[in-house]
Amino acid sequence: MGSFQIWAGRVKSLIHRMPPYHGPRRFAMETCPYWFQNRCVALVILCTAIAAHAQQTGASVDSIEALIRSQHYDAALQATKSALDATPKDFRLWTLQGIVYSIQGNNHDALNAFDKALSLSPNYGAALKGEVQLLYQANDKRAIPLLERILKTDAKDETAHEMLAVLEARQEHCKAADEHFVLSADVIAHHPHSLEAYGFCLVNTGEPEKAIPVFEQLSTLLPDRTYPKYDLAVVLVETKQDDAAIKVLEPLLTSDQADPELLSLASEAYEAAGNTVQAVALLRQAIVLSPSNANYYNAFVMLCLNHESFQVGVDMVNAGLQRIANDPSLYISRGLLYAQLAQYDQAEADFNTAEHLDSAQSLSAYAEDIVKLQKDMAGKSNPDDALLGVRAQLKAHPDSPLLHFLLAKLLVYREADTDKKTSDEAIRSALLAVKLKPDLVEARDLLAGIYSRSGQYNLAIEQCRLALKDSPNDETAIYHLIVALRHSADAAQRAAIPTLVKRLSELQQASRQQQTDRKRFQLVEQQSVSGQ
Amino acid sequence: MRTGRRSFLRLSMVAIAGALSRKIGAQQQSGMGGRVAAAQKKPLESGRPFDAHFVDVAAAARLTAPIIYGGQDHDDYILEANGCGCAFIDYDNDGWIDIFLLCGTRIEGAPPGASNRLYKNNRDGTFTDVTKQAGLEAVGWANAVCVGDYNNDGYEDLFCTYWGQNKLYRNMGNGTFKDVTKEAGLLNSEVRWGTGCSFLDYNRDGHLDLFVANYLKFDFEHVPKPGAGANCNWKGIPVECGPRGMPFGVHSLYRNNGNGTFTDVSVEAGIAKPWPSYGMTVVTADFNEDGWPDIYMACDSTPSLLFINQHDGTFKEEGVERGVALSNDGGEEAGMGVGVGDYDLDGHLDIFKTHFAEDTDVLYHNDGTGEFDDRTLQAKLGVETRFSSWGAGIVDLDNDGWPDIFFVTGSVYPGVEKLLPQNPDKSPRILFRNLGNGTFEEISTAGPGVTAPHSSRGCAFGDFDNDGDLDILVANMNEPPSLLRNDLKGNHHWLKIKLVGTKSNRSAIGARVLARYSSKVQAQEVLSQSSYYSCNDSRLHFGLGQAISADLAVYWPSGIVEKYSAVKCDQLITIRESHGIIPNMGWAR
Fold first, then answer.
1. What H or E segment, with its residue span, contains residue B158?
2. Which residues of A touch B7 (CB under 8 A)?
3. What are the φ/ψ torsions at residue B394 (nearest 5 degrees)?
4. Is the peptide bond prior to B243 cis by the omega test (within 30 degrees of 0)?
5. Are B396 and B541 in contact (CB under 8 A)?
6. Average pLDDT value for residue range A276-293
7. Cβ contact (<8 Å) for A376 and B323?
8. N or C terminus: fewer CB in 10 A for chain B?
9. CB-CB neighbors (< 8 A) of A348 in chain B
């Protein structure tokens, strides 16, 4: 789960990479979704559409069009003004005016002209498209209802779908965006900007597998850019295709690679693929390149935890703290390592420091309570300290799902949920934890256990199924489900048990193997050569 | 283009938190898989007196030879760590149980005097070492002992498991034993690590068959030294490697041919499949009460196994679905010892399994159909998590009619205590008295025999002084054994039952007795092995509390059921199948 969280951070960085709109900008039309690939073609198409109408309404439109074709924009503009004096309700003239303003770069007046045209003829395609293009350029979400209008008249307009998808993606309405990306698949294949948006939306909606071909296409379109390969590698790591991720990243891992984020991602992939030696080397490189970035020290701590190399981790964090003295995450990381070394006083001191540095985060409070619990288990403290500690911390951080979960867990184990009062409080705490954080599967597992022990098997089944939705490989949830189904009077439910047992056995075997593979390596300090 | 550093930072902290919460509840033991569980809060003391009082009389009883097993202050290999079992066995049928203690060796070679030992009960509180005369001198990495009369000649035989070659000793009936492993067809073709074992009549033909668990494949050439490989560290300290990461053992079932030989039927019986398991103690009993013996095996760092007898010569493994394989949250545990008994007096056999330090030992309640629920927390047994626990029993130590729980402890990593004092090498025995309401209370005032710290492994329960209460024999690592004499006070009654099969196997292994007294009903079964690698006194002991008699129902392995009403308390009775209660032949009360 730790890796998932770090990946989630990378996903966030994908999302945030989409630059906000800072004003009118030049765009590379060949890479953007537009109905028009260049101005002239735009003109031809728009004007043809307008001219088709103009044959019925008079020659003024023809003449204005001719002026536009011959790039006499000022004259064309003057002509539209004159014509509108005569026929102010001619939506075609307003549209032509909008086109001219737009060509001249006067987007404000262009939008006004298109608005006027649409007020006279709300579904006039040319005006709609003209306005949408300007709004889209400006990343203005007012384009969204207009695009929806376009699609009502022509549901197969792929460009409209694409634009709508990108705008929705920018609003982080990824589910809606994905639907439109699917309907514009042919056109977005050549638009890097749209592909990028589609990719991160698929990731955002929990479909990283589908994002792989998207980022592959993006990488093909932009072979000289690094970020598409990075994005591709992120989703490959997320979908546990670590060898494939390594293959993507390897060409970028030159000796002069100066991107620490890329090095950190590669480290994660190598570690997942079992090559801890390379993982450590790359992460060290990232730290050297960006010694004031706490993330990389924390990633190193994760490696140390995985390989039970706690003192090495402490030493690395100490080095980090010399550069970033006030980073709470580093104190939490070091505290965690101290706890593993059974140096509980140092661990508590670090968590206290983290709490002081950033009291808004509840993580250090949670960590402190965990250490109190460990001290209790080691016989080094008053057994009630952990429970008292959690209750106190919850007063300071009432919305911390982790603290609510910890309280529930302590109540179950320390007080035992066998008496109703304790059981009720444990259930309330665990339910609150999952309300605050629905994917906190450990809390759902705990609830399933409490319900099972009290004979409320249907509730246990419900929690197990919710946990497995977020974490299909959750062995605890599968076991609780087996226990609860065993007590079910429903034969169909009981019939599912053998499959679950088999699944659990497979997962346990895989976990054991992973654990052994992880422990093949231990991180040790480099010894300096004597005399050098 | 990668922005969002602050959000990444927060998520990084969540990653650390995820690691934190996983570490606190997950398996910290490098090689030995076990959960880390917070201890339950101790309930208020009941204030009820506990009448049993244990004194270690081993020295006075002349049980002075140390049980050699591996390094004294550190171990290099897991082979040195697991220790061995012991047995109460009346090898000469004089009615006074004798003592058989296994012994190991050292990597550098066995010190003088290292051997398994047979001690004859002198009936006066002392024992005589008759190992040599009995032909039982042997040195090696002995593990477990199971007892049973495999040839139905009326004398209990011994089977000992080893890393190396197991040994079947036939009791010749004249005070001696003969190693008949080869002629019985029980020689391994290669070095194997035999662990728990049990005689059982799995096909109900009246002859005792044999089940042997295996731990793992071990050889000195391939196993890394402490700290040198995966699964060779504990809390950052280099320790002996394993069992995780080592190849699993393969278990064996041998069918008794009725002529002194056995046939390996492991494959056809469905036993020899590659179960991902490091097998330890074996208990065979009819857990689902269908008249056929099943096999339960505590497994280390892997799911424990429950083989359900299919009545056709085969077994089906159903540990997970029957709720006896894992912890209450589905985690693998370091299952070592197994106590079997009826703790809640509902007439069904429950299971108590011991585990590693910082984990709870587990109580599985049997609903009578062989399906179990974890009742550890409800029974308040989760209050004790300090020590690695080994031999155990669900036994009535104060004769109040409610079976208690007793187990022995000891570190599996000698020497770690120097760096982590909270993990001592030696630690006390643990006694939980049954409060009679589904819960237990830890008792620390049951005498110096309980509180004295040792590094123990196997233990056996039996009445060595024939005074009607249960005493305890304990195998200690690199020390003489403990013999905890129970100096029980009070006026509670008891009943001991010796069963002798005729159509069923002579040892009556697998015979179940339901005793009804004072509106209670308690089930017990004659077992060939339980606790840790050990064998109890074959006479079933029932504490009756204030009841002065009991009604008995005996379910023989042959299928015969016999009932006896109003059997008087405070005596040993002998029941021969189809013959009723017979005089105690040469056996005292």
1. strand B157-164
2. 9, 12-13, 16
3. -100, 95
4. yes
5. yes
6. 94
7. no
8. C
9. none
Residue in chain B closest to A409 (alpha carbons) equals B38
Please check whether residue A374 touches B, CB under 8 A.
Answer: yes
* B193 within 8 A of B215, measured Cβ to Cβ: yes
Nearest-CB residue to B15 (from A2, A379, A519): A2
Q: Do B329 and A476 touch (CB under 8 A)?
A: yes
Contact A12, B4 (CB under 8 A): yes
Q: By percentage, how much of chain A surpasses pLDDT 70? A: 84
Q: How far is A453 from chain B (nearest CA, A)?
A: 8
Report percent pLDDT > 70 for chain B: 93
A480 touches chain B (CB under 8 A): yes
Give the residue among B533, B42, B29, B14 at the shortest CA–CA distance from B331: B29
Contact of A493 with chain B, judged by CB distance below 8 Å, is answered with no
Q: Is A519 on the interface with B (CB under 8 A)?
A: yes
What burial letters (b/e) apply to B158-178, b meaning 16+ CB within 10 Å? bbbbbbebbbbbbbeeeeebe
Q: In this model, does residue B33 exceed pLDDT 70?
A: no
Structure tokens at B446: 């049951």
Residue B2: pLDDT band by 50, 70, 90 thresholds? very low
* Amino acid identity, position B566: A
Sequence-distant (6+) residues with CB within 8 A of B428 are B387, B409, B444, B450, B451, B452, B453
Per residue in A349-372, is it b (16+ CB within 10 Å) or e — as a string?
A: bbbbbbbebbeebbbbbbbbbbbb
Using CA atoms, how far apart are residues A125 and B587, in angstroms rounded to an integer? 109
List the single residue in B328, B377, B422 with the smallest CB-CB distance to A378.
Answer: B422
Asked if residues B363 and B379 have their Cβ atoms less than 8 Å apart, the reply is: yes
Measured between alpha carbons, how far is A380 from B39 in angstroms, rounded to an integer?
13
* pLDDT at A370 > cutoff 80: no
Tokens read off for B355? 């585990």
Residues B281/B144, Cβ–Cβ less than 8 Å: yes
Nearest CA in chain B to A373: B38
Mean pLDDT within B322-342: 94
Phi/psi region, residue A504 (left: phi>0; alpha: psi -120 to 50; beta: rest), is alpha
CB atoms within 10 A of CB A17: 16
Do residue B39 and residue A376 have CB atoms under 8 angstroms apart?
yes
Whether A414 and B16 lie within 8 Å, measured CB to CB? no
- A residues 233..252 contacting B (CB < 8 A): none
Distances (CA, A) of A393 to A241, A387, A438, B46, B170: 40, 10, 21, 34, 66
Question: Mean pLDDT across the stretch A419-445?
Answer: 91
Q: Are B304 and A489 in contact (CB under 8 A)?
A: no
What does the block give as tokens for A215? 């980022």
A-B contacts (CB, under 8 Å): 219
Assembly ipTM? 0.89
Bridge pairing between strands B167-171 and B482-486: unpaired
Which residues have CB under 8 Å from A26's CB, separation 6+? none
Do residue B422 and residue A308 have CB atoms under 8 angstroms apart? no
Average pLDDT, chain B: 92
pLDDT exceeds cutoff 60 at A496: yes
**DSSP output for B171-196:** E-SSS-EEE-TTTTT---SS-EEEEE
More confident of the two residues B221 and B291: B291
pLDDT tens string A4-21? 333 344 544 444 444 333
pLDDT band at B402 (very low <50, low <70, confident <90, very high): very high
Contact B320 A479 (CB under 8 A): yes
Cβ distance of A482 and B235 shorter than 8 Å:
no
pLDDT score of A291 more than 80: yes
- For residue A259, the chain B residue with the least C-alpha distance is B2
pLDDT at residue A7 in the model: 37
